[in-house]
Design a protein that fits this description.
Oligomer: heterodimer
Helix content of chain B: 25-40%
Strand order of the largest sheet of chain B: 3-2-4-5-7-6-12
Radius of gyration of chain A: 18 Å
CATH topology of one domain in chain A: Pyruvate-ferredoxin Oxidoreductase, domain 3
Number of strands of chain A: 10
Order of helices and strands of chain A: EEHEEEHEHHEEEHHHHE
Largest interface: A-B, 64 and 73 residues
CATH class of one domain in chain A: Alpha Beta
Largest sheet of chain A: 8 strands, mixed
Structural class of chain B: alpha/beta
Number of helices of chain A: 8
Distance between the termini of chain B: 53 Å
Distance between the termini of chain A: 13 Å
Strand content of chain B: 15-25%
CATH superfamily of one domain in chain A: Pyruvate-ferredoxin oxidoreductase, PFOR, domain III
Chain lengths: 227, 655
């Protein structure tokens, strides 16, 4: 499918209070990203970095995370909408150019949002809820999830969890790795300048800059099992 | 002007700082908590007072007092909090204000944070107070400043209403430097005709003044041009306004039925307006000529923008109203249409089953889908039904992920102790009512505990329990509540129980923080964390002072002792209060503290899973031959070791 970014003409009616279009922003790309995962995986950080990188490139952005209540282990969703000076925060069903799913079961909650022909990047981490761990409830198989994504007519990019590289003996941060893969493998890389994102990842955390750089680079180059 | 990436909550705060706000009060509540939270993190030292108050009513009264004394004041809350504050809101509305007084209320259509899908616009209507509804994060920054100006120019408190999608969105905002609060001598204005409700004459005169102030606010709002009306083809009313460019695509309907093309007027308020451009673009693919549509974007939803609506009605023959939750604007439009003798269709929530079928209903958020399908319904465009129908069957296959308490949470021990006490009394869990309350303590409703039965409103657990007793329930009745919730609205219920000597057991789960909303302080938070010069109010001294004769303090990390104490309390007559006390593990761990340490003895573990099924602790997982405890997550509460009956988990001495 075609992932070419859409562009739009300057809309004269788009003169919302306080968000008047400025001439320099009159041409830009529309690109919507829906993110899901489990609290503690760093899903929201991915959304935050994408947003920050977009703004640095002069692309308007709105980042809307939903954290739920739990500190850790609860469902997490976020939407990043790029390119519109005035935009509603939510992405409609079948509206996301890219879905980034960090957990196999949670990926199912994002399927409805992917655009037919859009990219669906799935990191195959499995984080079973307690009831599943105890065998009291069922956990979906990877095949089931992939089948649903294919039914939504999305392009699947599957990133096996064992592809996460080590750095000094410990696995690199999965979220930065997945971000790298999204930039390297999906339409996001045509919207955002990969070197800009890499630079942001480097400077964002003073601690672990090398580890994160390694994670991002490995993601960019990851062998993804496209289906 | 520097551009910052801000949340809606932060943009609201920056706007208030720019407006020279002097007093900011509020009570935490998702999605509004980020406002005061971000303000406190700024650690400003420029003559402002910022506080988390005991509850929203207290918060609003403090803000109103400051505004009566002539200062600019802001009060923040979620929609449920407005219900608490409202008794004072409606009364203070009658008196008006001197300094600018802005009430920030956050509604939650789509219920991302729990509680009701309340539309707080109804409160603005009932109290005759102006309400502004920004459509975006950036607009929030500007409109808060407008709200203060409007409040001072008209002498009336002003609501700013955000929804979760704006409060919690992050977007770039061009912000200016904060302006220190202006030097204003506090006003001491003695005027009982204005500041009391003593008698019908005074109250009715105030009512008249209130109505006049709202009318004046309407004039100021029009003068400021807050509500934007854009009429299509204003110079050719009565003619076919539709651009013929798209005629071949969109006039199938018209060729069969040779009537003049529809002149559509779209009304959208608040966040919904931010979806219009996108929706019109999409509808263009199905034959919409966007230039033929007249648009009214409503930012000030109260007072009703009757003049703009009338102008739109005169110009159009079909109106589409796009507003989330209740049809407040739509009703106003219908009234104006009736007055004008408008005979066209008004498409909205009150327009029968068809608009409802395409998503114009009272439940949930509005988005692009409502704009596109609404326009399609109004114009008869061939919008495919499934245009925004994703594969939602997929979601049904996802594993359920019930929210549980964190590893090390002291509430875990309290639920386990309650369950054990009920068991020891040879009662079934279904025989013992355990009322619940707002906050993290409600998580006891979920597996594996299934302890708590209900969740209503702040403080409701204590009073609900009394109702069950009076209804004739003969088994013990237990109420559970957290510390902040107890201070907020639980104390009056307990006083009532003492006064009427209602036999019940109240368990106060005191973790020292208002945790669920993001670790704010409350009156009981330890003194080192209180603002400089502030004090901590000790529940252990307060409860006995109310006349509670049976008062116990337990450590929820000591399961058997806690269960035994609860069991003892349940058997006693009268009002019993058990204070279960341990600091929130998240907060304690942020300061590097651990409660203890445990170690798995693999050779003793037979994978019976009792530690998991009883505690539901997220730090424990199943390994090959033994359970595993994640040392990074474990806080050392030792509850797993206390339930293990094979000595496979051992308490260790803390180094």
């Amino acid at each position: 499918m075609n992932h070419a970014p859409r562009t739009t003409h300057h809309e004269t009616r788009n003169t919302q209070h306080g968000t008047r279009n400025t001439p320099h922003a009159s041409r830009f790309t529309f690109y919507d990203v829906f993110l899901v995962g489990v609290g503690g995986q760093g899903v929201l950080t991915i959304g935050d970095v994408i947003t920050e990188a977009a703004l640095r490139q002069g692309i308007p952005a709105n980042f809307y995370p939903t954290k739920g209540m739990a500190q850790r282990g609860g469902s997490v969703k976020a939407r990043v909408r790029l390119g519109r000076e005035t935009t509603g925060p939510n992405i409609p069903d079948k509206g996301a150019d890219l879905v980034i799913a960090m957990e196999v079961s949670e990926a199912l909650k994002a399927v409805r949002f992917v655009k037919p022909g859009g990219d669906f990047l799935l990191f195959g981490h499995v984080w079973p809820p307690t009831a599943c761990m105890l065998g009291q409830a069922s956990y979906p198989s990877l095949e089931q999830v992939l089948e649903q994504v294919q039914r939504a007519e999305a392009v699947v990019h599957y990133l096996p969890p064992e592809s996460l590289p080590l750095y000094e003996g410990a696995p690199v941060p999965a979220n930065v790795f997945v971000l790298g893969a999204a930039v390297g493998r999906t339409g996001l890389g045509q919207v955002l300048d990969p070197s800009e994102v890499a630079a942001l990842v480097q400077t964002r955390w003073a601690k672990g800059a090398d580890r994160n750089a390694r994670a991002f680079q490995a993601g960019l180059e990851a062998m993804i099992n496209d289906q | 002007m520097p551009t910052k990436l801000l949340t809606g909550n932060e943009a609201l705060v920056w706007g208030a700082l720019r407006a020279g706000v002097k007093v900011v009060t509020g009570y935490p509540g998702t999605p509004s908590s980020g406002a005061i939270g971000s303000l406190l993190r700024m650690d400003l030292d420029d003559g402002r007072h910022v506080e988390w108050s005991t509850n929203e009513k207290v918060a609003f009264e403090i803000a109103a007092g400051a505004a009566w004394a002539g200062q600019r004041a802001l009060c923040t809350m979620k929609m449920s909090g407005l219900n608490v504050a409202y008794d004072s809101v409606i009364s203070i509305a009658y008196s008006g204000c001197n300094g600018g007084l802005v009430i920030y209320v956050a509604d939650d259509p789509g219920v991302s944070a729990g509680m009701a899908e309340q539309d707080s616009r109804g409160f603005a209507l009932m109290s005759d107070l102006p309400m502004l509804e920004p459509a975006s994060v950036a607009e929030t920054y500007r409109l808060v400043q407008v709200a203060f100006e409007l409040s001072e120019r008209t002498g009336t408190p002003v609501f700013v209403r955000l929804v979760t999608a704006i409060s919690n969105s992050h977007a770039p905002v061009a912000v200016e430097e904060p302006v220190p609060p202006p030097e204003r001598e506090p006003i001491l204005d003695r005027d009982i005709t204005r500041y009391t409700k003593a008698g019908a004459a005074i109250s009715m005169a105030q009512h008249r003044d209130l109505i006049a102030r709202l009318e004046r606010a309407g004039d100021v709002i029009r003068e400021m041009g807050l509500n934007q009306l854009q009429l299509a083809h204003p110079d050719t009313p009565g003619e076919q306004p539709r651009n013929t460019q798209h005629a071949t695509r969109n006039t199938q309907h018209a060729t069969r039925n040779p009537q003049p093309a529809t002149r559509l007027g779209v009304i959208a308020s608040g966040v919904v307006a931010s979806y219009l451009d996108e929706g019109f673009e999409i509808a263009t693919r199905f034959g919409l000529d966007p230039d033929s549509v007249s648009v009214l974007r409503i930012v000030a939803t109260n007072p009703f923008p009757a003049a703009e609506v009338r102008e739109l009605l005169r110009h159009c023959d079909t109106i589409l109203v796009l507003e989330e939750l209740e049809p407040h604007i739509e009703r106003g439009v219908i009234v104006e249409a009736h007055r004008l003798g408008f005979e066209g269709r008004i498409v909205g929530k009150l327009d029968g089953p068809r608009p409802s079928a395409v998503g114009l209903h009272r439940v949930g958020e509005y988005g692009v889908a409502q704009v596109v399908h609404g326009v399609g319904e109004a114009l008869g465009l061939p919008i495919p039904e499934d245009l925004f129908q994703g594969n939602d069957a997929a979601e049904q296959l996802a594993a359920r992920r019930p929210i549980t308490v964190c590893a090390g949470c002291p509430h875990r021990g309290t639920y386990m102790a309650i369950n054990q006490a009920i068991r020891k009394l040879r009662l079934k869990k279904d025989e013992v009512m355990v009322t619940g309350d707002i906050g993290c303590t409600i998580l006891g409703m979920n597996p594996p505990f299934h302890t708590v039965w209900n969740e209503v409103a702040m403080g409701a657990s204590v009073s609900l329990a009394q109702g069950y007793v009076h209804a004739g329930v003969e088994t013990p009745v237990i109420a559970t509540i957290g510390d902040s919730t107890f201070f907020h609205a639980g104390i009056p219920g307990l006083v009532n129980a003492v006064q009427h000597q209602v036999p019940l057991t109240l368990i106060i789960m005191d973790n020292g923080w208002t945790a669920m909303t993001g670790m704010q302080i409350n009156p009981g938070t330890a003194e080192p964390f209180q603002p400089p010069g502030g004090r901590s109010v000790d529940i252990a001294r307060l409860v006995p002072a109310l006349g509670v004769e049976h008062f116990f303090v337990i450590d929820p990390f000591d399961l058997d002792a806690s269960a035994a104490t609860i069991q003892q309390a349940l058997a006693l007559p009268g009002v019993k209060v058990v204070l279960s006390r341990r600091e929130c593990a998240i907060q304690a761990q942020r300061r590097g503290l651990k409660a203890g340490q445990v170690r798995v003895i693999p050779e003793n573990c037979n994978l019976c899973k009792l530690c998991i099924t009883r505690t539901g602790c997220p730090a424990i997982t199943l390994g090959e031959d033994t359970v595993l405890i994640d040392p990074a997550l474990c806080y050392g509460c030792t509850l797993c070791a206390q339930v293990c009956n094979r000595a496979a988990i051992e308490k260790e001495a803390v180094p």
